Amino acid sequence: MYDAIVVGARCAGSPTAMLLARKGYRVLLLDRDGFPSDHLSTHWIHQPGMARLERWGLRERLVATGCPPITAITMDLGPFALRGSPPPAAGDVVEAYCPRRTILDKILVDAAVEAGAELREHFSVQDLIWDGDRVSGVRGQSAAGAMVTEQAQIVIGADGVHSLVARQVDAPIYNAKPTFACAYYSYWSGLPLDSVEFYPREHRGFGALPTHHGLTCIIVGWPHDEFHAYRADIEGNFLKTLELAPAFAERVRQGKREERFSGTAEMLNFFRKPYGPGWALVGDAGYHKDSITAQGISDAFRDADLVAEAVDAGLSGQQPIEKALAEYEQRRNEATFPIYEFTCQLAALEPPPPEMQQLFAALQGNQADTDRFMGVLAGTTPVPEFFAPENLGRIIGAQA
Fold first, then answer.
1. How far apart are CA 346 and CA 348, in angstroms?
2. Could you give the CA distance from residue 282 to residue 295 in angstroms, rounded to a whole number?
């Protein structure tokens, strides 16, 4: 009998298992994959995510892998570009990183095991098991092919947007929005960067991020309804889109693509109720949004902290676990609703409305507020604070 079973061992699951194990709980961590292994990802860990790695004692492990630090963001708007450095997180964390998931996820898994969690790789969960109306464990197939049943006080689904845990408990979905975009990415050598670069264009968007081994990840997004037409010639359409920024496209031609293209049309936008009798959800299983602001990894780290705190409060008897998990949902939603709405606006890939064009024009030459705007993308400037009418009025008025 375990205190907690965590289904899924990537950016949400391993930290959740690690944090609970560090508190002395008996934790079983399951994943259908083995580690290291790759995973579709935006790669970017913003400053708030790095602040959590620092607090967990894992930041230096990532830094030691040679992943290049990022302190600036460049947004090329066509007629001009804005470049800024987001305000720090937790007082002094100024660097972000874009690691390969083969490296990041292994660091997280190893930390969970070091904390005392029991890891079972290549374990495919098939069903939840129930005690009345309460989830009491899981049934699945081990790496050896045997069917295994394990029980726990709580089962935590960290198993992604198509979470089996969420499906089997019929977790209610709310605040859902359409799928706006699709995306593909690959990796280039010979394309050095000194910042993350964004290129918003009408009905298109692309960006470049420095990652491990001297490679640059280039990701391109299109409207969701163009996915099938785009997929008919992935490379051709990918490179054609980059020509919307001719100088960048020329830099790409000077480099070399080193890996195949990876992509998805499932950039879903939804919230799920993340708890119920004997179960909880964390990471993409509980909340997901378009990748255009690349918040997923940092969000997963935050929610791992929140759900581990709630489960600890419930299992230790500090408060009823349902009440603790209800507070987890409330805190998650308060943190994410504003950036969720902002992300969905960007993901529509529509031309900036007049007020946004005014803002961008006013930010030219205004480094302090450009930095704060980049902090919106990074999660270190609160969305409501930056887009408050009085703040926008101050920025735009200063231009006049």
1. 5
2. 14
Ordered DSSP codes for 182-200: EEEEEEEES---SSEEEEE
Q: Is the separation of the CB atoms in 122 and 144 below 8 Å?
A: no
Burial-class residue 119 by CB neighbours within 10 Å (0-12, 13-18, 19+): buried
For residue 217, the cross-strand partners are: 187, 209
Look at residue 171 in the predicted model and tell me its pLDDT.
Answer: 98
Q: What is the pLDDT at residue 397?
A: 85
Q: What is the CA radius of gyration of the chain?
A: 21
Q: Which amino acid is at 131?
A: D
Residues in the chain predicted with pLDDT less than 70, given as ranges, are 399-400
Q: CB-side exposure of 375: number of CA atoms within 13 Å?
A: 20
Q: Would you give the distance in Å from CA 138 to the centre of its chain?
A: 26
- 29 and 94 in contact (C-beta within 8 Å)? no
Q: Return phi, psi of residue 239, to 5°.
A: -70, -35
d(CA 100, CA 262): 13
User: For 135-173, what is each residue's pLDDT tens digit?
Assistant: 999 999 999 999 999 999 999 999 999 999 999 999 999
Strand partners, 263: 184
Mutual angle of helices 354-363 and 367-378, in 10-degree steps:
120
Sign of CA pseudo-dihedral 346, 349, 354, 358: positive
pLDDT of residue 400: 59
Token pair 């759900």 in the structure block, residue: 307
Q: How far apart are CA 363 and CA 356, in angstroms?
A: 11
Helix or strand holding residue 181 (H, E): strand 181-189
Q: Could you give the CA distance from residue 205 to residue 245 in angstroms, rounded to a whole number?
A: 10
Q: Which residues pair with 131 in a beta bridge?
A: 134
pTM over 0.90: yes
Residue/partner pairs of 385-392 with CB below 8 Å, 24 or more apart: 387/342, 392/355, 392/359
What is the rounded CA–CA span in Å between residue 197 and residue 218? 9
